[in-house]
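Case 402 in the screening queue. Each case pairs one protein sequence with one candidate compound; here the compound is magnesium ion. For every case the pipeline is the same: read the inputs, emit a complex structure as tokens, and attach any notable structural observations.

Predict complex for case 402.
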Amino acid sequence: MNFDRIMIRYGEMALKGKNRRSFEQKLQRNLIRKLRGFPETRIQKTRDRMYILLNGEDPHAVMQICQKVFGIHSLSFAVKVEKEEELIKQAALLAFEDAKGARTFKVSAKRTDKNFPISSQDFNPIVGGYILKNTENVTVDVHNPDVEIKIEVRQDAAYVTAQDLPGAGGLPVGTTGKSMLMLSGGIDSPVSGYLTMKRGVELEAIHFHSPPYTSDRAKQKVIDLAAQLSNYGTKIKIHVIPFTAIQQKIHREMPEGYSMTIMRRMMMRISEQLAEREGVLSITTGESLGQVASQTMESMNTINEVTNYPIIRPLVAMDKLEIIDISRKIDTYDISIRPYEDCCTVFVPKAPKTKPTRKNANYYESNSDFSQDIAQAIDQSYVIEVEDGEQIQQKDEFSDLF
Ligand code: ATP
Ligand code: MG
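Case 402 output:
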């Protein structure tokens, strides 16, 4: 006997009143897309749940995929059997044994088909006794069990489930719009992208790249990070922006103390223009207050002046250690710590101004005209797409040049 289905419970989604239907449909579509590698699986919707019917596909492999899909509160392996005592007992034992390392359990039977000859109360010890007989060093604990085995005897059949495994939470990706993620090769921005996606947001990414000061390896890192993020959502378009000329001009023409602030303002302007072109309504960054010189209140205020797009900063109030914990959990940490040159670190001044002002930034910028440079950077940008953990397509006719 093996599990034949996975039961999915929605989280917050269940609360969404009228939108609920479209949320469910989005979740279903996202699941179907993620399960393309398991062609026998089918999805069945009931009033308040979803089931993935496995039709012979490996339950654990499918579970791993489903646990990364946003909009799911918890999941359980389940098995449907005929309403026969012997079969139900075997299914319960399977469910217990699958919870590796569990030493205590509890059986909770529920009988909605009153024609089934054994009452729920009588059935619990019968099934419990069967598990005890077929295992070693295992005990019943009705208050705080390692596993609760649930049995539902319904009209059509009996369903046995165990273990509520955590889902990824959040809302189905694609239900709350799109954001342009400013993606560096660092630890923070991928975590930020993950948390934004968790709120149902689809991502496009933008990366500023300054060859030959930054290498192909640095660009590859960003592609790998975006690919890893795409495991949690839909396809991600990465816009790679050649940024060398602008950085050199800033270096030549702007006072050193303001070069970082002005560079960030240029990045923000380009991100907004690209977002507008793509019909994307917000920008997401990995900024976290107080972390580095560019992330003081003064800095944020001065950088933010150049856009009136909403900027989503999921990390703004988080500690570095909390951010690192998430990056480990979502498997971006190991990619992020690979050594590389960031366009920001290459030109970063020894003593960047930590308290820039809008007035000064505007004054310095008014001495040079960057509009051509910005237009050219956007014009020469190219797109790399990633989906389900992999790069899918390379549309960059210019890539050899940069
Ligand atoms: P991260 O760990 O994400 O690199 P950080 O702590 O290094 O962040 P900064 O270097 O101040 O912080 O960058 C702040 C934010 O600016 C980043 O989180 C990212 O959203 C954006 N950013 C920085 N460099 C780039 C880049 N080369 N391309 C795109 N976005 C960038
Ligand atoms: Mg960085």
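Case 402 observations:
- The chain has a mean pLDDT of 92.
- The longest helix spans residues 256-278.
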